[in-house]
């Protein structure tokens, strides 16, 4: 374990210097170990096991798990600082730790029973357990509460049946948080939904073939098929039925900030590639970086990145101070994911035909970042959350 990581353990409300050292460690790791491997990972559609182990050793799987369970216990602003740094490299690396940082651990942290915390959090923090979060289904995506997967009580057990789709890390996961219906009818507040902690080796649980995706080769997702999967009643998250939807939504608030910080990290890298190319590519006898129309594209991207970075930071601080930030998290996730799309598009434009070639870094990054406007809630879902919340605030007199 790196000295900076060791220092972090036992530390709370990270002193600035220790966090800076840790950030520097991640910066070096990203540039020296991950970036040189990007093409290999994209080509083989696989992150080498040795790198996963190095990520474990650095404590990356446990950034957000409280220290008492072996994690680094980073607050949201600290987490986004590290994640942004890590996302200078291909997002496939971050994808491996993404669920452990967010929905895979935070549901247990906030809602889990003591026994559930003790059983899972230390292994999530160490990265021995990679987690998945199974909410989406073939017929339920944006309308998350319309899920069909059922959990039927049978004595001291529940029996789970259903199919989950596009589940990130499913082929790696040893623990899957499965959202299922404990009531046949849709209930007000979506109280028909409950969350279950299901070990991936439970009989009847199968992982489908790896999905073939547009980008982020090396980041795996797949179906999770539950065929009469019997789990003990103690697997019900928090031991209470009907809380699954609210748990998922509140955990997604922090998750959406995390995704926004991934977008900022990727946008910085893409902008670096665009500036590098603009400075090295000569046309009409000089670097294209000296042409004002190219400068305009770079300037728009820089302002976009700065705006997203500031929004993520500010909202993460509000979250850490205990405020509910659902509306703000949706704004930030929407803005940052659209922002990185614009930045990637301009970078391809600046590269010209070279940017359209399969061996170009910006071509790969352009495809990689497209998904950020879709997962953890599409831009359009963020817009509906924002719109609904604004109307609610107006009606309750909180807006003026
Ligand atoms: N934090 C805490 N509670 C929340 C919440 C949040 N962020 N969002 C919603 N809730 C609560 C609501 O307060 C409501 O409870 P009450 O009725 O007691 O007030 C309950 O959850 C139901 O909320 P709502 O009525 O808004 O739910 P809808 O079924 O209308 O759906 C959307 C809401 C569309 C916003 C939700 O389904 C969603 O986010 N969909 C996208 C899913 C997604 O992001 N998928 C990505 C894959 S998951 S990795």
What key attributes describe this structure?
single chain; 400 residues; alpha+beta; three-stranded mixed β-sheet; 13 helices; 9 strands; globular; binds coenzyme a persulfide
Task: Describe the protein's architecture and organization.
With 400 residues, the chain is α+β, with helices and mostly antiparallel strands. Helix content is 51%, strand content 14%. The chain has 13 helices and nine strands. The strands form three sheets. Strands 2-3-7-6 form a four-stranded antiparallel β-sheet, with no helix packed on it. A three-stranded mixed β-sheet has the order 1-4-5. Coenzyme a persulfide binds at residues 103, 133, 135-136, 142-145, 189-190, 245-246, 249-250, 252-253, 326, 375-377, 381, 385. Residues 103, 133, 135-136, 142-145, 189-190, 245-246, 249-250, 252-253, 326, 375-377, 381, 385 line the site of coenzyme a persulfide.
Summarize the helices and strands and which ones pair or pack.
Layout: H1 3-8, H2 16-34, H3 38-44, H4 49-57, H5 76-86, H6 91-101, H7 103-111, H8 114-126, E1 131-134, E2 150-154, E3 157-168, E4 175-181, E5 193-199, E6 205-207, E7 221-232, H9 244-280, E8 282-283, E9 286-287, H10 292-320, H11 326-351, H12 361-369, H13 379-395
Parallel strand pairs: 1-4
Antiparallel strand pairs: 2-3, 3-7, 4-5, 6-7, 8-9
Helix pairs in contact: 2-5, 5-9, 5-10, 6-7, 6-9, 7-8, 7-9, 9-10, 9-11, 9-12, 10-11, 11-12, 11-13
The chain binds coenzyme a persulfide.
């Amino acid at each position: 374990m790196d000295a900076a990581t060791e220092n972090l353990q036992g530390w709370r409300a990270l002193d600035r210097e220790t966090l800076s050292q840790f950030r520097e460690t991640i910066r070096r790791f990203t540039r020296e170990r991950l970036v040189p491997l990007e093409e290999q990972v994209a080509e083989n559609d696989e992150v080498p096991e040795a790198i996963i182990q190095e990520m474990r050793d650095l404590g990356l799987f446990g950034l957000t798990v409280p220290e008492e369970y072996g994690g680094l216990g980073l607050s949201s602003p600290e987490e986004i600082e590290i994640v942004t740094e890590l996302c200078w490299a291909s997002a496939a690396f971050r994808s491996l730790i993404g669920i452990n940082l967010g929905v895979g651990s935070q549901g247990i942290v906030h809602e889990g029973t003591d026994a559930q915390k003790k059983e899972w959090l230390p292994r999530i923090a160490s990265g021995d357990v990679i987690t998945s979060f199974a909410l989406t289904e073939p017929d339920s995506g944006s309308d998350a509460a319309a899920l069909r997967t059922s959990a039927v009580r049978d004595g001291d057990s529940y029996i789970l049946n259903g199919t989950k789709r596009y589940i990130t890390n499913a082929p790696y996961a040893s623990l899957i948080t499965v959202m299922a219906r404990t009531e046949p009818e849709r209930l007000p507040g979506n109280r028909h939904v409950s969350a279950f902690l299901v070990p991936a080796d439970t009989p009847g649980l199968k992982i489908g073939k790896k999905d073939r995706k547009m980008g982020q080769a090396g980041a795996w997702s797949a179906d999770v098929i539950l065929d009469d999967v019997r789990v003990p009643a103690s697997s019900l998250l928090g031991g209470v039925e009907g809380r699954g939807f609210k748990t998922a939504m509140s955990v997604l608030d922090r998750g959406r900030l995390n995704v926004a910080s991934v977008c900022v990290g990727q946008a910085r890298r893409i902008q670096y590639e665009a500036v590098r190319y603009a400075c090295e590519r000569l046309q009409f006898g000089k670097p294209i970086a000296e042409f004002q129309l190219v400068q305009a594209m770079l300037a728009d991207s820089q302002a976009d990145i700065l705006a997203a970075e500031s929004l993520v930071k500010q909202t993460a601080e509000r979250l850490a101070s205990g405020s509910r930030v659902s509306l703000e998290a949706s704004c930030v996730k929407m803005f940052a994911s659209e922002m990185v799309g614009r930045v990637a598009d301009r970078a391809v434009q600046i590269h010209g035909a070279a940017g359209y070639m399969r061996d170009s870094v910006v071509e790969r990054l352009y495809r990689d970042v497209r998904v950020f406007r879709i997962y953890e809630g599409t831009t359009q879902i963020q817009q509906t959350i924002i719109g609904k919340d604004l109307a609610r605030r107006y009606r309750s007199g909180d807006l003026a």
